[in-house]
Structure prediction request, 615 residues.
Amino acid sequence: MQRGCDLLIFRPRLKRQGKDRSLASLGSSYGAVPGFEKRVFMSQLSPAREEYEVDLQPLTHVPLERELPLGQRLWQQGWLRKSLILLLLALVWEGVARYQNNDLLLPSFLQTTSALYDGMLSGELLGKVWISLVVLLKGYLLGIVLAFGLTTLAVSTQLGRDLLSTLTSMFNPLPAIALLPLALLWFGLGQNSLIFVLVHSVLWALALNMYAGFLGVSETLRMAGRNYGLKGLRFVLFILIPAALPSILAGLKIGWAFAWRTLIAAELVFGATSGKGGLGWYIFQNRNELYTDKVFAGLAVVILIGLLVENLVFDSLERVTVKRWGMQR
Amino acid sequence: MNAPLQGHAASNLSRTDTALLSVDNVSLEYRTPQRVVRATHQVSFEVDPADRFVLLGPSGCGKSTLLKAIGGFIAPCEGEIRLQGQTVNAPGPDRIVVFQEFDQLPPWKTVKQNVMFALLASGTLKRREAEERALHYLDKVGLAAFADAYPHTLSGGMKARVAIARALAMQPKILLMDEPFAALDALTRRKMQEELLLLWEEVRFTLLFVTHSIEEALVVGNRILLLSPHPGRVRAEIHSHQYDLHSLGGVGFQHTARRIHSLLFEQGQSPDAERELDFTDIRIAY
Prediction:
């Protein structure tokens, strides 16, 4: 009865609205018309169930929140999990080295640790690290400044955009080390040529990431910024950079790794020629004198600094910025 | 009942000098890589001080584009937009836009900083006064307790409230709202409409409100401009000052809603067909 009624009302109305006839014919086999199927369905079901209301008492006998067990809470700590991984790797290393039993090829974890300890204590290793870090930071900061300038130009003008894309596609695939002979020729032996290759290794990777980040800033946010009269450099500083921070941080991380890599490699290859040697030079020298444990100690320092920067500097930077702002999980 | 006017609208017939915002024969175009699309064609209307003026139309009638043009984000290809006699040609803090999207609030600033940021960036106020005013308007929208929360911790309705507080704190000459409640759930939307009207009662700002919901237009606005789609042209201007949230479902309300619906969707049909429509035919976006 109900079904028939619905159909009767429905079909003429569809025709009257001048809608497609095929829709009207679909209507008879229902499904195509919203609400139609539901009404038929409801009229079949509704009498079988009764309505009811529940008076809610305050919920007191069930605790609303409870603490996770200690094990699970500890497992939530990232540093604990990572330390566990490091410990496991050290154990594997120690085991393999003892099995190998050849100090010259593979010194054990403990031997490396003691070489590292001695190096630190005598101040030799620390001095080398300091020399390397100073050069590294100079190159890194200069690279960041240049990348910032280039991307600002790229977001503000068409020509800047073309410049950035052409330059990055030209120079990004070029290994920094390949430029070192040229740099030595231009800037002479010393820090300047190292800084030149460092800038080269940081600049393009960072600029690419930064630019991608700027492009990803939502149109609404841009309009909101322009709405307050922000323009030019102020717009880039107050809207684009914070909004693109996840990509910029990723670029900074990649740039840091590239710079570190380039520096050690450059010192390994050409370190002897550059006045005072850094960490790479330390590794190179000790390899020549077959102090393999010191070579490992040098490598370990490279790794340790990498881990420290990643986990202390970049992680804290992310925690107080993008994670706090809910832009990244 | 009302004969369709050729070209544009009724508001032109009663042109006055008191208008705060006048949109004069504005045509807007936007570019896709392949072609230039005309979004609106010679639209004219005027908004008076303390109006709650609604642009209503189906999707594709260029109402959002029109709002962006008034905001100064798009330059009209024909005609002129004037705010208090001055031609609009760039975005500025005298016309604050409240967008539909939730990401209009910079996520790196807390709620209070968000409101202050607008005041500081535009150079409206110094830090001390900006903070005071930010807190004042946050209190007005009921978010004083969340002043130090970051936007990602708020619900959609709260984010919309922050955007409204930010816009009001700027004390713009006109407040532009681009479907500000469209992304909210029905209950929150209704509450926000109610609060917006209360705020208007208190502050008496001038509001230009874009929506595609007939019901929302009737509830929020005091005048409604109907735009036809593809391209947007003025179809009619209708008074709705007599309706508020309490008139939902009332006879007069339904009658006007029906009339608007027929103006928007029944173009070119015989008047016979219009009369036969019953209420279930009306599309209310609720």
About this structure: Residues 124-156 of chain A form the longest helix (33 residues). Chain A has 15 helices and no strands. Confidence is low (pLDDT under 50) at residues 1-33 of chain A.
